[in-house]
Amino acid sequence: MEPHATPPAWTLLMPLKPLARAKSRLAPTAGASARAQLALAFAQDTVSAALACTAVRDVAVVTNDGQAAEALAALGARIVPDAPDAGLNPALAHGATAVRGIRPEAALAALNADLPALRPGELSRVLEAAARTPRAFLADAAGTGTTLLSAMPGQLLAPHFGLRSRARHASSGATELFVSDAVSVRQDVDTEADLAAAVALGVGPHTAEALCRGTGPSPVNTA
Ligand SMILES: Nc1nc2c(ncn2[C@@H]2O[C@H](COP(=O)(O)OP(=O)(O)OP(=O)(O)O)[C@@H](O)[C@H]2O)c(=O)[nH]1
Ligand SMILES: C=C(OP(=O)(O)O)C(=O)O
């Protein structure tokens, strides 16, 4: 694909499960209330870092959670109700249709809402690479999943998130991105080990505060 004359201004689609059901794989370490607070804090840090990224035009969060919608709208995100309420991929497909209904030529990227160490400069580099190909994806830190899936104008997003989504996005024809210095875009948090890895990278202020409330101090990502 020819590089675009001007880099696209991306709309990010961020799916967020109702907080009461989110982050179930943290159950061995955190109770229900702490998990909900962490899920919201991860989303707040992800949205804040995404909106601070110069390549990002706007962020649309696809969620049916009222508390999260209010908190994320206060940070500047647009909220798209998860009308299908049928899981992650239907939520993303619905969000893509909603955005393209308003801006048919939008460059779209789905980004998981559980990237509490996300750094705007690293996201910029990933989106710059994504702009060179019609549909692209970035594998998660574990190496089996996906944290970002992009679709340039005129391309359907066609999300295949879930178990072994790295292989399924590759099979769907999307180009895998290999971007150096982008670890924070790949570090999603599902398990306690993921959380420790994110803390080692430096989490954003909402997550740091939630961790302080629940389990003691942790480093803050101020980048
Ligand atoms: N709107 C919406 N977002 C979802 C749904 N399922 C997952 N997500 C979001 O998709 C991203 C990846 O989700 P998962 O890791 O599968 O779910 P999770 O709640 O974060 O963690 P687990 O409960 O441990 O699976 C996160 O941003 C989730 O909030 C859904 O049914 N609807
Ligand atoms: C939904 C996904 O994320 P997770 O690893 O958080 O389940 C995925 O990798 O496609």
From TrEMBL:
Pathway: Cofactor biosynthesis; coenzyme F420 biosynthesis
Gene3D superfamilies: Spore Coat Polysaccharide Biosynthesis Protein SpsA, Chain A
Keyword Ligase attributed: no
Residue sites binding phosphoenolpyruvate per the record: T146, G162, S165
Catalytic reaction(s) noted: phosphoenolpyruvate + GTP + H(+) = enolpyruvoyl-2-diphospho-5'-guanosine + diphosphate
Keyword flag Ribosomal protein: no
UniProtKB keywords: GTP-binding, Nucleotide-binding, Nucleotidyltransferase, Transferase
A molecular function (GO) term: phospholactate guanylyltransferase activity
E.C. code: 2.7.7.105
InterPro entries, per database record: CofC, Nucleotide-diphossugar_trans
Stated family: Belongs to the CofC family.
Function: Guanylyltransferase that catalyzes the activation of phosphoenolpyruvate (PEP) as enolpyruvoyl-2-diphospho-5'-guanosine, via the condensation of PEP with GTP. It is involved in the biosynthesis of coenzyme F420, a hydride carrier cofactor.
Name assigned to this protein: Phosphoenolpyruvate guanylyltransferase
Organism: Streptomyces ovatisporus
Gene: cofC
